[in-house]
Design goal:
This protein is 13% helix and 43% strand. With 157 residues, the protein is mainly beta. It has a five-stranded mixed β-barrel. Strands 6-7 form a two-stranded antiparallel sheet. The radius of gyration is 21 Å and the shape is globular.
Amino acid sequence: MIKIRAVIEHITYQNSENGYSILKGKVKDHNDLVTLVGTMLEVPVGSVLLCEGDWKIDRKYGQQFIVQSFEEVMPATVYGIEKYKYVGYVHSVTFPIKTKDGTIRTTQNTQWTPLGVKFLYDTLKEHGALPIEERGADYVQPYELLSSTPKRKRKAE
């Protein structure tokens, strides 16, 4: 089986009763959108999916990735994060800033919405990471969520 990571761009078909879906997604090293086919219930546009399956060439529809299993993952690129804006997880606030010379320019600040905060909480909890308030005495931080950059120790003064 092959694993691919796709940012969902378009929903061609979704059956709400059985979850059968035909989705189009952006996949690294593919110029065109990739067609994903399989049981993927309630996958919105902008989702980032890690899919496991195999390639198939359909005579009528061309190359497709047949999804056997999938999980929604956090985006790894600015492009992926930008797609979450349209799902409602983040929004941008534009505000003016007065510079030293008196000219005014604008800047943008992207912020998580309450829906996005819940999504982050649920995703991190699903991977074993808990907020400090919810950690028990026996809690161990999952290895894959630890920072790979060692923290510098301060010299004692």
